[in-house]
Amino acid sequence: MISQFSRKVSDILIYSKEEANRLRNNYVGPEHLLLGLIRDGEGKAVKMLSTLKINLFEIKKQIEHH
Question: Of 11, 21, 41, 49, which cross-links 54 as Cys (Cβ 3.0–4.6 Å)?
């Protein structure tokens, strides 16, 4: 299924699944997708969040502790 996406999107989906596994979740939810985007560290989403002065480290920390 991942092969139907661009390499960048495929990487983010893989990162998201790894984040879900790391947090011991048996699903990939929006929080894992956000962690995957943050982990990738590039792309329009991260640039947009940074432009809005969103603290990505704080978001990551909050997700990991819930």
Answer: 49
User: CB-based contacts of 17: which residues, under 8 Å, 6+ apart?
Assistant: 28, 32, 36
Q: In angstroms, how far is CA 26 from the centroid of its own chain?
A: 16
Q: What is the pTM of this model?
A: 0.85
Burial 10-39 (b: 16+ CB within 10 A, else e): ebbbebbbebbeeeeeeebeebbbbbbbbb
Confidence grade of residue 2 (pLDDT, cut at 50, 70, 90) = low
Q: Does domain 2-64 have CATH number 3.40.50.1000?
A: no
